[in-house]
Design a protein that fits this description.
Length: 254
């Protein structure tokens, strides 16, 4: 132990004089996604002075960036004191409305505010296509990690099911005009509510069961009852949550 302490003391003295362990470079790849300065902001003065400590704290360093920026990162040592931070931007799979705020949700299970300032610093973050998903009444929080000391959270959403709903809408011609998809819990079950608008027709509303496997059949039945459903001058509410029937009525009679 004494010998180790002596050797470490010599190394630290050499470092203090010649700065042989100084962090030489830290660059981001691809450079088109994020600037190097963002990575440098997460480097502590001690890591900058003794680069092996940055290597030992690699996961903590990456998490400090991933807490505030919508990216996935991986740190690589490329030479004596030289590092490259590989960055992959999170891709928003859907836009979620929750408590009057818009959030982006990635397929990898991360959720962050759509107006987060750091979105502008990650150059490839683009709003997803498709309707806004409203996370409605009676549903649990979509944040699995609601700590206030971060901006990028782990989502506690059934992401595969939600993206399955959005994909199911693509298979129904009139549902492609859905602007809002509302998920809410009523009478002990989840339902999906679509708000559609295709001017000059009046706004329409469709309420569906959460199981999307029969949505195409429901869509076919609606088209038989109302061939010009979206072009209707009357605003209708279609309730397809019953076991053996579809109820269509004016939205004014809700």
């Amino acid at each position: 132990m004494l010998l180790i302490a002596v050797v470490l003391g010599i190394i630290l003295q050499l470092e203090a004089r010649f700065q042989t362990l100084r962090l030489v470079s830290l660059s981001v790849e691809p450079a088109s996604v994020m600037e190097d300065r963002i990575a440098w902001k997460a480097v502590s003065p001690r890591w900058e002075r003794i680069w092996p400590e940055l290597l030992w704290n690699e996961r903590f360093f990456c998490e400090e960036i991933e807490k505030y920026y919508p990216v996935k990162t991986d740190l690589q040592l490329t030479g004596w004191g030289h590092f490259v931070l590989h960055v992959e931007p999170l891709k928003p799979a859907l836009t979620l409305s929750w408590f009057n705020a818009l959030w982006y949700v990635s397929a990898s299970g991360r959720i962050w505010r759509a107006n987060l300032p750091t979105n502008l610093e990650i150059r490839t973050i683009l709003p997803p296509q498709g309707p806004v998903v409203v996370w409605g009444e009676g549903l649990p929080t979509p944040l699995a990690t609601p700590e206030s000391s971060r901006d990028i959270y782990v989502a506690s959403l059934p992401i595969e099911r939600i993206t399955g709903w959005l994909k199911a809408l693509d298979d129904v011609k009139w549902a492609q005009d859905a602007q809002v998809l509302i998920v809410k819990r009523t009478e002990g079950r989840n339902i999906v509510q679509l708000l559609l608008s295709a001017p000059p027709g009046a706004p329409q509303e469709v309420i569906l069961k959460e199981d999307a496997s029969d949505w195409r059949a429901v869509a076919g039945a609606i088209e038989k009852i109302h061939p010009n459903f979206l072009n209707n001058s009357i605003s209708l509410l279609v309730d397809a949550t019953y076991r053996d029937k579809i109820v269509i009525r004016s939205r004014d009679r809700k």
